[in-house]
Amino acid sequence: MRALLTTNAELVITIVKIALLLFIVLTVNAYLTWFERKVVAHIQSRWGPHRVGPHGLLQPLADGLKFLFKEDPTPAGVDKFVYFLAPLLALALALTSIAIIPFGPDPIRLFGHDIYLGIAPLNLNIGILALFAITALGVYGVALAGWSSNSKYPLLGGLRSSAQMISYELALTMSVVGVLLMAGSFNLRDIINAQARHPERGILGWNIWPQILGFFCFFTAAVAETNRVPFDLPEAESELVAGFHTEYASFKFAMFFIAEYTSMITVSCLCTIMFFGGWLSPFPASWTVTHYLPSVILIPFGLWVIMDGVRYETIFGRLVLPAMGTAITALGLVLIVFPQVNAFIQAPFWLLSKILTFLFVYVWMRGTLPRFRYDQLMAFGWKLLLPLSIVNVILTSFVILAKMQWGAQ
Amino acid sequence: MTAPLVVFFGLAALAVIGAVSLILQKHPIHSALSLIVVMVALAGLYLLMGAEFVAAVQIIVYGGAIMVLFVFVIMLLNAGVEEHTSLSKMAGPPGLLLVLALAGFIAATVARSGASVQAATQTGALSSTKGISEMVFKDFVYPFELTSFLVLVAILGATVLAHREKS
Description:
heterodimer; A: mainly alpha; two-stranded antiparallel ribbon; 15 helices; B: 167 residues; mainly alpha; Four Helix Bundle (Hemerythrin (Met), subunit A); globular
């Protein structure tokens, strides 16, 4: 057993990493639904979930159990094989795309092995292309679900989504070309490192400034690709009941749900990596004082949770919330006491806070924007986004060529 | 048997099964799905040969864009189960002859260039994106541009045909 472990160490590490990431992503997914319901509720002057657990924190668990125990009828006349394949395909592809994302620059040293954060190998030179390949296949989950249900509304939803995804994929792919030209690589790690060429510039060195046009096109197209508001026509409830997943119940519906939220996370990761410097700190590298920022945020937040918890209505809340607050405060203190841990945590801290910001923007948009009409959606994609992204590619190439020609480095 | 060989035979078997199922399936959507399996298996084979870029583009262009259009059109037309006519008696003998000729040609090619295929697997000839782009935009730039022009003409032709004025 021991010999087997040492000879196949890489394989074992990868399998453990996959299991761990799967667990984390699914948990984050569950709490993303809680986060979304809470934020949208507060935008609309409501409380949101607050009955199950303190502040509704156990709501995702209850929802998950409900999905598991609901009856799962298969409608008559469905194409059985494709009907079962569609949610599986949607979920599997959405989860696979997370594997490409790198989560930190430095390895952790454990049992004599350098373990990097992220599943894909370091020299995955087709990084962003591999991601696009996976998302390109993601259309099938939705389209086939709509077709195989043998029902009018799902079919319309499936057709809409295929048309929408084909239209916006073009703009999505064209809009990142500018970033790729600036980095000179498809590798996601190289793209982040290219934004750290001038460590003293901090936030000003990120791709968002020269590529603001590209970012606009990318984010809009990416929201459309994930079928979120304002581009959620495939599941427009006022016209199509629930769109492509009308005939799905129980856990098969949950699989589509998880797939959608996972692709939201992937898109947030991509936005962060391509345009907002990935795990880079927004401050110049010489400002070492900013390394204490995670503690400065964690400790007051933990103390606030304790304060809030002691006078919570339910006994359960009075027990759980202060415990959580103590854990968060302790984490903040650990970061101050152990500078090594603090230095390591910097990159994942910035990456995660940027991803969280993007997830918030997603929810914010859902709470604010009305849905597009179908013809508006098509016109927007083909007549505005695509030309804009092509203009961005041409502009970027000209600037890079000019810099090469006249040596303005 | 080494690990890459196992993966190779797995992917090759998947591609062949997909191709056979593409012909045998009765419903157009099932055929389209089989074709997607073939495309993805081929991409895996390219990846095995070290041609990362080609593999990714294979999935994006063939697996993604083109096959999505196929599925979209089948869904839009709501094409039902294919109708089978009784097979033509004439088709048998010439078809068999063609199959034999094609199999012989492939066998001869494989037998003749067995060594070079082996070499290509080891070096990964077209692996780097840089190598491919230099070939396309430097060495073969005129044929490449001419092909693009041809595709453009085809697109224009399709648009004209689809948008013919109602007389």
